[in-house]
Amino acid sequence: MPSTSDFRNGLKIEMDGAPYIMIEFQHVKPGKGGAFVRTKLKNLKTGRVVEKTFRSGESVASPDINQKEMQYLYRDGEMYVFMDTSDYEQTSLPKENIGEGVKWLKEESICDIMFHNGEAIAVELPTFVELSIAKTDPGVKGDTAAGGSKPAELETGASVNVPLFLNEGDVLKIDTRSGEYIERVKTA
To answer: Would you call 104 helix, strand, or coil by DSSP?
Structure first.
């Protein structure tokens, strides 16, 4: 069981029977009274963020969370269907559990699905994805020296800013954490 001295961003804990992930924490030592830790926790099932204060040295429970590598298959209304590549078992997750990550999901991509007590609760996307440009304005010759950027719509519907020299059909490497263009992988 982790205590307050083990707190770090990304730590998964269990409170009131629900799994939470620590978004941020701050150790506070007031002039009067005992030290405490102020935290921001995100509920992995609902996505709600709560603030909670723990006394210094207090222990918290670790949740029963397992991760499975699964392949994204397709979208069925508001549900996203994933398949375990070892036993072909399928699991569906609602859009709320995936959050902003839905704009980086491409069919056949491999993701880590988090399970809490046997129930799928969240998706952990790969750090980088390769997506092609579906729509963008053409770059004008000579514009590349300025180092400017233009908006581009990717095959998943996500929009990112890209350098002026990129064209429709180019395959890009995108950072899923920040949503930024990293590099061109392949030209159209």
So the answer is: helix
